[in-house]
Input
Amino acid sequence: MTRRRLVLLLLIASITMGVSRPRGMADVLEVRHWSYPDYTRVVVELSKPVKTEVRHLAPNPSAKKSERLYLDLPGIWVGRDYPTGIPVGDGLLRAVRLGQNTLRTARVVIDVENYDRHRLLFLTHPDRLVIDVYGERSSGDRRVGPGVPGVRHGGQLSPDAREVRTVIVDPGHGGSDPGAIGVGGLREKDVTLRLSRLLTAKLRSVGFQVVATRETDRTVSLEERTAIAEASNGDVFISLHANAAPRRSVQGIETYYPDANHERHSLHVAMRENGVSRDQLNELQRTLAKWRIAETSPYSQRLASLVQGQLARALPSRYGKIQDLGAKKGPFYVLFLSNMPAILVEAGFLTNKSDAKRLRDRKYLESVATQIATGLERYRDSGPTLAQRNPR
Output
């Protein structure tokens, strides 16, 4: 036996026997997973950021080991907290296992059934690793939903002209995250929830199926929002927000769509909604440039232009001067984490006295909901659209 192997065996034995946690170590806070049509997403939430990479191991039948991916997490302590692992069993992933590889490095192992490729994303606030694993699923597995692994068969993005049926309405923030706070203590999370309920009713009245990412004042993570969207077989994703600015004179409505290149004036909005610094946002741009943005961005841009156009034309006739801030490119996590055309509507500035007064008014929010719905109708009817269509 080599000296190196002996040291390794002694180290593993010491960990197994319960060696005390070294100083300065961070923790795995939670592990979550969702199944999408083409891939399964694993999210590992940490108490501090780490740098890592995904490594692939081929199956080893003689050792009775399946194909797997693994990530080493330096400075992370797992200890004996995950003795049985986390079963997935969705036809693509078998399970996620966590263990203490060395005293100062934890290891995440993902057992896969049919591996094709993967992507690794680093998100902040809170710090998370997002691992998307792509591959063919075992036939017959149709379970779906956040925390309930599954697959929707035939869920391929295609630019064919198809009717948009299902709209995902995403009221921003909620629960422990109030979002922006404006004049008189008006909270963004309250405005977006009221607007979501009105928009949902309006969309259903004109023939759309609607799924809301939250229907009450609860906390919903960004990855859970998009997991709900794709598990619901959504065709378009609309995230609702209310704006804020240091200068109280700034007012108006704007609509964003995802693009690998952002516009400079959208950075402060994205930093507030994403909860990241400018440096972190620049890193986000480099990551997003690698994604499948080219396919969805033109459709998102058209949807954003139609919705913004309706808002800018119709609202001033009833409510006086409302500045049209336009349809813009924006680097928003919640839009990029979705595989469908997606927009983010900023319905006004909570920090502006006139806008805040309107955002408290139910009739104004009803008017906003009506114009967003009209913009969606125009998008649906103008084709071609990019719709995730599966057998229903």
Notes: Residues 142-162, 288-292, 387-392 have pLDDT under 50 and may be disordered.
